[in-house]
Amino acid sequence: MNPSVFARSAIRSRALARPIRESVYHWENVDGSHLPFSTKSKVGLAIKMTLYLGTGFSLPFISAWWQFHKAGKPFFRTGPPPE
């Protein structure tokens, strides 16, 4: 066998045997502390989520409207369909 295999396994076993150090960062173990926004106000959270998700959902429709607008064509037709 290759001697480097034994050397790597010895190094790996020594690394795993070391005690795990505590992280230099400290987070409190409370609900919502890992989120970058506040979840205390349900109404505020609902408004923020609606704006965020609504913006992402509406962008394709706004861009399609803009392309039709630039071309001088109506985005939607009113009245009966053309014959």
Count, helices = 2
Termini distance? Answer: 82 Å
Silhouette: elongated
- Low-confidence spans: pLDDT under 50, at least 5 residues? none
Task: Tally the beta strands.
Answer: 0
Give the helices and strands as they follow along the chain. HH
- β-strand amount: under 5%
Query: In percent, how helical is the residue content?
Result: 40-55%
GO cellular component, one term: respiratory chain complex IV
Subcellular location: Mitochondrion inner membrane
Protein name: Cytochrome c oxidase subunit 8, mitochondrial
Pathway: Energy metabolism; oxidative phosphorylation
Task: Write a brief caption for the model.
With 83 residues, this protein is mainly alpha-helical. It has a domain at 40-74.
Descriptive report:
By secondary structure, the chain is an all-alpha fold. It has a domain at 40-74. Helices cover 54% and strands 0% of the residues. It contains two helices and no strands. It has helices at residues 3-17, 42-71. The chain is elongated.
Topology record:
Blueprint: H1 3-17, H2 42-71
Characteristics:
83 residues; mainly alpha; elongated; membrane; Cytochrome c oxidase subunit 8, mitochondrial; transmembrane
